[in-house]
Structure formats: C-alpha cells, structure tokens
Amino acid sequence: MATREIYESTFDEDVQTETESNQCPECDGRVTTNAIETICEDCGIVIDEQRIDHGPEWRTHDQNQRKRTGAPLTATRHDRGLSTEIGRRTDANGNELSGRKRQRLARMRREQSRGRFQSKAERNLAHGLGEVRRIASVLEFTESVCDQACHLFRSAQTEDLLRGRSIEAIAAASVYGVCRCNGLSRTLEDIADVARVKQSRVKSAYKTVNRELGLPAQPVRPSEFIPRLASELDVSDSIRQRARRLAAKAESASATTGVRPSGFAAACLYKAGRDEGQWLTQTEVAEAANVTPSTIRSHQDSLAELAL
Questions:
Q1: What tens digit of pLDDT does each residue of 170-188 get?
Q2: Which residues lie in Basic and acidic residues bias regions (predicted)?
Q3: pLDDT tens-digit profile of 216-255?
Q4: Which of 55, 131, 180, 181 sits in a 20 to 30 Å window from 17, CA-based?
Q5: 43 is in an annotated binding site
C-alpha cells in the first residue's frame, strides 16, 4: 500500500501567494495576500491594507431584515431603476420635515427632474415604458409579461420604429405582440380599449413591429379563449371542459381557419351549455366575446355541420 509524508504546513484558502513579479519592494521576499492586507512573510512589511470589497453586502441592519444591496435592475424603467427618488414630507425615520426643509427638497426635486433625461430619445423611452406599465396594470398582466413588453418597446426604439408613429401606439403594439407570442387570450380590441390611441393605429403599429422585428407570433386558437370566457360567464366545469373538447375537435378538423377565435370560442361555450342543460343566451355569450349574436349563430351552423 502506497504511503506519503504528511504535510508539515497547512494551507489557508484565505491566503494567496503573489507571483514573483510582485515581490517585496524591501527585501525581495515572498508576498502573501489575505482578505485584509498584503504583507511580506520575510520582513513583515505591510504593502497594502484595507482592501475594498466590491461584492454585494448581505448584512442586515434592522428588524425588518432589509439588505443594503439596493433594488434589482428592471427593464420597466428607462434608467433600469437606478435613479434616486427624493421624499416629500417625512425623512427616512418617518419624522415630519420642517417647512424650510420641504422647500429645499422641492427645489431639489425640480432640479432632478430637469436633469433626469440626457436626450430626447431617453425622454421618449421613459414615456413609452410608462405607457406599457399602465396598459399591463389595467389588464392585470403578470410582471414577466410587462418586462417582455418593455424589452420589445426598447427594441422598437432601437430599430427607429418610433419615427412617424405615436409612442402610445408602439407601446400598445408591444403589449399585444407579447400576448401573441405567449399565447395569451387577449384580442386587439382588449388592448385598444385601454390604450390612448385608436384601434386602427394600434393595428398599424403592431404590423410594423411584427414585420420589422420578426416576432415569433403564432395564430391564436379558439381553445385559448375558453377559460377567460367561461370565467366571465360563470359556467360550470363540465361546460368548460365540453367547450374545450369542441374547440379542440374543430381545430383538428381545420374548421377554425379564417374565423375570429373569440367568437368561435363563444359559440363552443354556447353549444356546450345547451348540451349540458344550461341555456346561455346568445346575447350574453356574444357580449362576453365582444362579437355579435349573428356570429354565434353562424358558428353554430359550422359546429352542426361537423357533427360535434
């Protein structure tokens, strides 16, 4: 059995030996560096001390266990969320400020707002990202969807797609483009209803963004609208499952090509309700899908022809 001698000296992972090019300037001895200082092992001279730790600080300093690392970077702000916000009536401890100090802070906020943007493009970016956040908040989208829409708006501005178009239209088109890429059951009318521009301008802006940026948008299927419409109509789970099966069979038979997905999904819910014994009116189903009752009747005929 092979054996070897035991190490006579220990190894400290916190101590690093400098290369020969960084020898001691006094005696040319061996220089070692630990977490605090750099010293020479021969003569003991301290070459460097109080080194700056550039890493994050994870220590906590209060009862709320807050960390001094700051907020994370976010794409929803033009400055990635790194700007400073000046308070108004209270200090960091919650104490009321005097009138003189409030006036001083008001002047500081005014000067900060003047120097907040370095260019007109940065000002437009801040306005567009704010519009994206507003639309996403009204439609109750998740934070990830909002971040993707903000990234898409940044890409549109980088490709100079804002020239000749309104910022609000590109912002709404960015939100709708993310919905199409993620398969969310939101129509163009849903986005245009909360946007500050007309639907025609949002549609034109989306066509431009989709063509110039090459979005991986897939055709919306009627089955994707079933859960949202079922929740609005407050139907039972059996009707919802029946409607999903009807929509899936129609999609496999290519009967949904060229039709409005939300209207066809509403027709599937209407037929499923009749099959399950719950009579939904065509008017309330059409209002939930934002279509006309005649659309429901026409799709009913298509479902009857397929014997579904």
A1: 999 999 999 999 888 788 8
A2: 56-65, 76-91
A3: 888 888 888 888 888 888 888 888 898 888 888 888 888 7
A4: 55
A5: yes
- The total of other beta-carbon atoms located within 10 Å of residue 146's CB is 22
CA distances from 90 to 61, 96, 112, 195, 206 (A): 21, 5, 19, 35, 44
Q: Is 24 annotated as a binding residue?
A: yes
The answer to whether 181 is annotated as binding is: no
> What domains, with CATH codes, occur in the chain?
16-49 (no CATH), 120-213 (1.10.472.10), 222-305 (1.10.472.10)
